[in-house]
Amino acid sequence: MSSLTTSIPARSWVLVTGASGFLASHVCLQFLKRGFKVRGTVRDPTQSSWLLEGRFKPYADIGAIELVSVPHLGADGAYDEAIKGVAAIVHTAYVTNIVPDPNDVITPMVAGVRSIMNAAIRESSVKVAVFTSSAVSTSPLAPGIDNGTIGRDSWNDAVLEAAWAPPPYGISHAMANYPASKLAAEKEVWKFVENNDLHFNVNVVSPAGLTGEPLNKKHIEGPANWVVHAYRGNKTAMDPFQASFYGDVKDVALVHVAAVLDPEVKGARLQSWGHSTHWNEVLSVLRRLRPLKKFVDDYPDPHHLKVSVDQTEAVALLRKWTDEPHKNGWTSLEDSIFWNISNPYLED
């Protein structure tokens, strides 16, 4: 891994937006471990100071990681200062609010892409920009139907129509806004690529659900931490999403890092969904890992999502760029769940 040619210079700066997030914090750590420097954007550097402590402290002590405030990701010029001198961008920031009005979710997400792309166009040091999209940008991933085969041109356009259905805005809009915002933001990325003669390469990484080691307590309290819902028996959160795909957060972070560093990856749309699974499989793993703890009963009619997705390119990047000598693909669901629940932040 250390001898591989990289598309950005050694020890150069990488801008990671939304750096305090579950995925982004692992992206930061993996770049730091490889000798790169990280400038992380956060809403409030004081609340995100943990990114300068703990396992990040050795890097903070030598000035290899710094935090900058970007309170509003979609504001004009939001990234103009943060982007100065960076060789690469990893744009993971997204609107976390679950609200009915699409103007409060989709609009700022698209504006955020425009803001950082315009900043990158003006900054000659930028060589690569990687954007985090989502599996739900490609397909509704609906249970009980055949979701088809996911290809380069697969888009979940129906969710945009649902999100922008006329008001009054209600729960159906709130449920559609997150996937619609990811879809709209990714389409805006490729629109920029098509309409501009960019001096930098652009790739997109599309994860599904994430499991694995949290680096901060807030990472296990978010609405998207599905395994913790199962651990706590939160059926309200579990019932609507009985089947999904899960990738280990370190794996997905590594795909982002590889999408920056690998000079052979250009204009890629990297589907990085991990393993197809069902709650009963997750519960079975939890029972093995915590045999004395009582968990909710299995679901009576387990099923996997019917969808075909090619993750060959993402898996090849994992194998190429890993620093684990025997790693041959996605981390197993059991290992990932172990790290998800074996931490100082999770209480029974």
Brief summary:
The chain is α/β, with parallel strands linked by helices and about 350 residues long. Helices cover about 35% and strands about 15% of the residues. The longest helix has 25 residues, at about 170-195.
CATH homologous superfamily placement: NAD(P)-binding Rossmann-like Domain
Strand order of the largest sheet: 3-2-1-4-5-7-10
Mean pLDDT: 96
What gap, in angstroms, lies between the N and C termini? 39 Å
Please give the domain count.
Answer: 1
CATH class: Alpha Beta
Order of helices and strands: EHEHEEHEEHHEEHHEHEEHEHH
Helix content: 25-40%
Largest sheet data: 7 strands, parallel
List segments where confidence is low: pLDDT < 50 over at least 5 consecutive residues: none
Strand content: 15-25%
- Number of E-state strands: 12
Pfam family, one: Epimerase
GO molecular function: oxidoreductase activity, acting on the CH-OH group of donors, NAD or NADP as acceptor
Keywords: Oxidoreductase
Family: Belongs to the NAD(P)-dependent epimerase/dehydratase family. Dihydroflavonol-4-reductase subfamily.
Question: Would you kindly provide a written description of the structure presented here, covering whatever features stand out?
Answer:
The chain is built from 11 helices and 12 strands. The chain has 348 residues and is α/β, with parallel strands linked by helices. The chain has a single domain, classed as Rossmann fold (3-Layer(aba) Sandwich). The strands form 3 sheets. The chain has a 7-stranded parallel β-sheet with strand order 3-2-1-4-5-7-10, sandwiched between helices. Strand 2, helix 2 and strand 3 form a beta-alpha-beta unit. The mean pLDDT is 96. Residues 14-201 form the NAD-dependent epimerase/dehydratase domain. Belongs to the NAD(P)-dependent epimerase/dehydratase family. Dihydroflavonol-4-reductase subfamily. GO terms for molecular function: oxidoreductase activity, acting on the CH-OH group of donors, NAD or NADP as acceptor.
